[in-house]
Amino acid sequence: MRILLVEDDLQLAEGLKQSLNREGFIINHAVKGSSAITSIAAGDCDMVILDLGLPDMDGMQVLKSVRDKKCHLPVLILTARDSIDEKVRGLDTGADDYIIKPFDMKELLARLRVIERRLGTAEQSIISVGNVTVDIASHSVSVDNTQVELSKKDYIVLRALMENAGRVVSKDKLESRVYEWGEEIASNAIEVRIHHLRRKLPEGFIKTIHGVGYTIQKS
């Protein structure tokens, strides 16, 4: 899942990026509310983690802008504003969740998993197609009940394809799932990931649809 983190505390943002990256999330970071609004309008994320005390505008304005456009993108407010009135205001303005700083990382991850399930990107913790199984909770992959070691990026590509079994996933869509803003991407980066996966998965499991993308057929 691609998360837009809107946070002007650079130290906190870097810590969050590292923690969420380890859990398989792709994090893009915006410091200003105006940058966040532009990114959201471009469709660059699946959800938003939003601080309220931003340098150029109040985070509530960002949330209101999103909801005024009838955008149903999930927004989780992460803020030091701890009054009940602020929490009620945030939820009434359209936030899907509201977490107060300081927070426990385990709680944040649990709240994100709830949003993932609501989005349908993680309807269940186990995804199986044929003899290949992806365990989202443990970030593990097995073939015929034997665990297969994959790099983080290879795992993300396989998970994206497994979640969309029966549908074609474009190269651009896979790139957006795997790489963050500003990360250098080789022209054949996804092809390399697919090659790595094919070496460890059953023959013909991942099919290339030339000029369109890749697919895994439902069993």
Give the ordered list of helices and strands: EHEHEHEHEHEEEEHEHHEE
Number of helices: 8
**Biggest beta sheet attributes:** 5 strands, parallel
* Unreliable stretches covering 5 or more consecutive residues: none
CA radius of gyration: 18 Å
**Strand neighbour order, sheet with most strands:** 2-1-3-4-5
Helix content: 40-55%
Q: What is the domain tally?
A: 2
Quote the average pLDDT. 90
Structural write-up:
This protein has eight helices and twelve strands. The protein is elongated, with a radius of gyration of 18 Å. 41% of the residues lie in helices and 21% in strands. It folds into two domains: 2-119, Response regulator (Rossmann fold, 3-Layer(aba) Sandwich), CATH 3.40.50.2300; 126-215, Orthogonal Bundle (Arc Repressor Mutant, subunit A), CATH 1.10.10.10. By secondary structure, the chain is of the alpha/beta class. Strands 2-1-3-4-5 form a five-stranded parallel β-sheet, sandwiched between helices. Strands 6-7-8-9 form a four-stranded antiparallel β-sheet, with helices on one face.
Salient structural properties:
single chain, 219 residues, alpha/beta, Rossmann fold, Arc Repressor Mutant, subunit A, five-stranded parallel beta sheet, four-stranded antiparallel beta sheet, 8 helices, 12 strands, 21% strand, elongated
Question: Would you spell out the secondary-structure blueprint of this structure?
Answer:
Layout: E1 2-6, H1 10-22, E2 26-30, H2 33-41, E3 47-50, H3 59-68, E4 75-79, H4 84-93, E5 97-100, H5 105-119, E6 126-129, E7 132-135, E8 140-143, E9 146-148, H6 152-163, E10 169-170, H7 171-178, H8 189-200, E11 207-209, E12 213-215
Parallel strand pairs: 1-2, 1-3, 3-4, 4-5
Antiparallel strand pairs: 6-7, 7-8, 8-9, 10-12, 11-12
